[in-house]
From TrEMBL, chain A:
<keyword id="KW-0119">Carbohydrate metabolism</keyword>
<keyword id="KW-0479">Metal-binding</keyword>
<feature type="binding site">
    <location>
        <position position="148"/>
    </location>
    <ligand>
        <name>Zn(2+)</name>
    </ligand>
</feature>
<dbReference type="GO" id="GO:0008448">
    <property type="term" value="F:N-acetylglucosamine-6-phosphate deacetylase activity"/>
</dbReference>
<dbReference type="Pfam" id="PF01979">
    <property type="entry name" value="Amidohydro_1"/>
</dbReference>
<feature type="binding site">
    <location>
        <begin position="332"/>
        <end position="334"/>
    </location>
    <ligand>
        <name>substrate</name>
    </ligand>
</feature>
<dbReference type="InterPro" id="IPR003764">
    <property type="entry name" value="GlcNAc_6-P_deAcase"/>
</dbReference>
<comment type="similarity">
    <text>Belongs to the metallo-dependent hydrolases superfamily. NagA family.</text>
</comment>
<dbReference type="GO" id="GO:0046872">
    <property type="term" value="F:metal ion binding"/>
</dbReference>
Automatic annotation (TrEMBL), chain B:
<comment type="pathway">
    <text>Nucleotide-sugar biosynthesis; UDP-N-acetyl-alpha-D-glucosamine biosynthesis; alpha-D-glucosamine 6-phosphate from D-fructose 6-phosphate: step 1/1.</text>
</comment>
<dbReference type="GO" id="GO:0042802">
    <property type="term" value="F:identical protein binding"/>
</dbReference>
<dbReference type="GO" id="GO:0006046">
    <property type="term" value="P:N-acetylglucosamine catabolic process"/>
</dbReference>
<dbReference type="GO" id="GO:0004342">
    <property type="term" value="F:glucosamine-6-phosphate deaminase activity"/>
</dbReference>
<dbReference type="GO" id="GO:0019262">
    <property type="term" value="P:N-acetylneuraminate catabolic process"/>
</dbReference>
<dbReference type="GO" id="GO:0006043">
    <property type="term" value="P:glucosamine catabolic process"/>
</dbReference>
<feature type="domain" description="Glucosamine/galactosamine-6-phosphate isomerase">
    <location>
        <begin position="9"/>
        <end position="235"/>
    </location>
</feature>
<dbReference type="GO" id="GO:0005737">
    <property type="term" value="C:cytoplasm"/>
</dbReference>
<keyword id="KW-0963">Cytoplasm</keyword>
Length: 410, 273
């Protein structure tokens, strides 16, 4: 039946007092799809029960979701750019660049992201980091920077420029002098076998930074040592690390390691663009350690653009046949599959539940960054960043702080 | 008294919902003329609430000019506890319909002064002009609301200590842990419900059969407090076949005969007394 927006007869309140009730929907809540309404006010998801019994208010508007699924908005912890913007390269226009990506990402259901900087010269970090916007109106929220490098292993540099790779000679002060300031950094990817100072990882974690292991030749022992020191994330599992070996499983072995401190979860980003990780590898990772799995796009500047030559970091790249390579080579240098596509591909490959596929891109990344009270769920009190999806997990609309920022054309 | 015997407990919920809808619509409530409804909780009325929500969604009934008074609430249970009657009513009824929050009244089992809370409830009912239709269920011990055996038949809204039968019946909702079951409740009195213009009692299941027998085939007795409604001018009891198991065949035949003799149309819409 047609159910138009209904307004009650109370006087129209100020925007932040408007109580909105989303009905005729299924919510991702409590690890299930529940038939229940979503109540939003002042940019937060709220508990309607005290509103009814204590405040004695009704909704100012009711929105019929037509049976859609309401999921928390996706969090992307690794994205290098998009829509022609390269966060590491476009230093002069970084503010507009981040804003352009933030506004573009909402189309794929992403409501929060970590702009990622690949291995770059120190100058780049000093210039770029302070200028990354903290918020973009009508755009996905910025959780902080993911500094993927420069403290990586040159043998696993992937698409990163070797001449910018650095070593941590003076502990934390090496990082501070390279990056300029740690303030805007949320995640650091480093190669643990290149970190001799056992304090560094712990010091980064103390500053609220998530330490991720990647672009590394680490053995499982190296990885376990780093995890004991506080590392909690692995950067794009399988890519830019030693392959699983049955006598030394390497970083991949962390998914089944018995040396992880109890109560701690090791999370791992995985790119399910249909290119970077074979479906069987996706399944192995999913089956081995489902609670740690995080979907990332690792998307590059060509996300959202057509075939041709573009830029990443310090090197040119080429998009051909839906894949992105370092120009003139067959080395993959990043994904151009948007997050909602990654979620769908992952679900098809693993045959997981709708709820799990969504949690891999929402709850798990939020838990990894320890922000699950504000992001990544539809729990009462969390930020009203959510998406409406159909049963095929295609994005119908995207909402940030309770306001619609994107609606897919019918 | 009219006893309407239907096939299943589902039929009871649906019939009751149709009746409530008809009564509200016939009353033609408006901003100066509220329909005052007394409401129960429990598994039997759940079916009725589901149907009423459907009717509301289909645009057949509105609760905009309806005031409600629930029968009871546990003492000391947090309002958002899964077993509280506030929780039941919010999740199973109020959040799905268009009733005004200020027209909803449920006793507050966490009030600082429980006696004052009960007295205030009586005042609110009086101010609302009295209850037009009070809906209730029946306990296995024949109680209405939490008017346990021995409750005065002229009682008013008050604090009651729950009987052992009731605690045992409730244990299944509290992990079968007797220590978690609330021992007291606030409840409307038998007299409070008797004051309403019409009383509708829903009785389903074989485990209620003996209580139904005691309520309608034996005398008025404070040990089976539902029996008090033998002395109300407009009592309507809706039950399923299983609930009639302890009744005399003659009683069942008499009431079924009345339904059979009414034409279908009248049955669908309710009954005339």
């Amino acid at each position: 039946m047609a159910a138009p927006t209904k307004i009650c007869s109370c006087p129209a309140p100020a925007d932040q007092d408007r109580l909105i009730q989303f009905t005729n929907c299924r919510l991702v809540r409590g690890h299930q799809l529940l038939r229940d309404d979503l109540w939003v006010r002042d940019g937060k998801i709220i508990n309607p029960e005290p509103i009814f019994f204590d405040e004695q208010s009704k909704a100012h508007s009711r929105i019929d979701c037509g049976g859609a699924i309401i999921a928390p908005g996706y969090l992307d912890l690794q994205i290098n750019g998009g829509y022609g913007v390269d966060f590491s390269y476009d230093t002069d226009t970084i503010e507009e660049g981040v804003a352009k990506v933030a506004r573009g990402l909402v189309k794929s259901g992403v409501t929060s992201f970590c702009p990622t900087l690949v291995t770059s010269p120190s100058d780049s970090y000093h210039t770029i980091l302070p200028r990354i916007p903290t918020a973009v109106p009508e755009g996905a929220g910025i959780l902080g920077i993911h500094a993927e490098g420069p403290f990586i292993n040159p043998q696993k540099k992937g698409a990163h420029p070797e001449n910018c790779i650095q070593t941590i000679d003076k502990g934390l002060s090496s990082l501070e002098s390279t990056y300029g300031s740690l303030e805007r950094i949320k995640i650091v990817t480093l190669a643990p076998e290149k970190v001799s100072d056992p304090q560094v990882i712990g010091q980064l974690v103390e500053r609220g930074i998530t330490v991720s292991l990647g672009h590394s030749m680490a053995s499982l022992g190296d990885g376990e040592r780093a995890v004991k020191q506080g590392a909690t994330l692995i950067t794009h599992l399988f890519n830019a690390m030693l392959p699983f070996h049955h006598r030394d499983p390497g970083l991949v072995g962390l998914l089944a390691s018995d040396a992880v401190p109890s109560g701690r979860t090791v999370y791992f980003g995985i790119i399910s663009d249909g290119v970077h990780t074979h479906p069987a590898a996706l399944r192995i990772a999913y089956r081995t350690h489902p609670q740690g799995l995080i979907l990332v796009t690792d998307a590059i500047s060509a996300l959202g653009l057509e075939e041709g030559v573009h830029h990443i970091g310090q090197l040119p790249l080429e998009v051909k046949q839906g894949k992105a390579f370092i120009a003139g080579t067959e080395t993959l240098c990043g994904s151009i599959a948007p997050m909602d596509e990654c979620v769908r591909i992952f679900r098809r490959a693993t045959d997981c539940s709708i709820v799990y596929a969504i949690e891999a891109a929402t709850l798990h990344p939020a838990q990894c960054l320890k922000i699950e009270k504000q992001k990544g769920t539809l729990d009462f009190g969390s930020d009203a960043d959510f998406i409406l999806l159909d049963d095929e997990l295609r994005v119908l609309s995207t909402w940030i702080a309770g306001r619609r920022v994107h609606q897919t054309a019918a | 008294m009219r006893l309407v015997i239907l096939e299943t407990s589902d039929s009871v919920g649906k019939w009751a919902a149709k009746y409530v809808m008809k009564r509200i619509n016939d009353f033609q409530p408006g901003p100066d003329r509220y329909f005052v409804l007394g409401l129960p909780t429990g598994s039997t009325p759940l079916g009725m609430y589901r149907e009423l929500i459907e009717f509301y969604k289909q645009g057949k009934v509105s609760f905009q000019y309806v005031k409600t008074f629930n029968m009871d609430e546990y003492v000391g249970l947090p309002r958002d506890h899964q077993e509280s009657y506030h929780y039941f009513m919010w999740h199973n009824f109020f959040k799905h319909i268009d009733i005004e929050p200020k027209n909803v009244h449920i006793l507050d089992g966490n009030a600082a002064d429980l006696v004052a809370e009960c007295n205030k409830f009586e005042d609110l009912i009086r101010e609302a002009g009295g209850v037009e239709l009070f809906i209730g269920g029946i306990g296995p011990d024949g109680h209405i609301a939490f008017n346990e055996p021995g409750s005065s038949l002229v009682s008013r809204t008050r604090v009651k200590t729950l009987a052992q039968d009731t605690l045992e019946a409730n244990a299944r909702f509290f992990d079968n842990d007797m220590s978690k079951v609330p021992k007291q409740a606030l409840t409307v009195g038998v007299g409070t419900v008797m004051d309403s213009k019409e009383v509708m009692i829903l009785i389903t299941g074989a485990h209620k059969a003996f209580a139904l027998y005691k309520a309608i085939e034996e005398g008025v007795n404070h040990m089976w407090t539902v029996s008090a409604f033998q002395q109300h001018a407009n009592t309507l009891m809706i039950c399923d076949e299983d609930a009639t198991l302890e009744l005399r065949v003659k009683t069942v035949k008499y009431f079924k005969g009345i339904l059979r003799d009414l034409d279908e149309g009248a049955l669908q819409e309710g009954y005339t007394n």
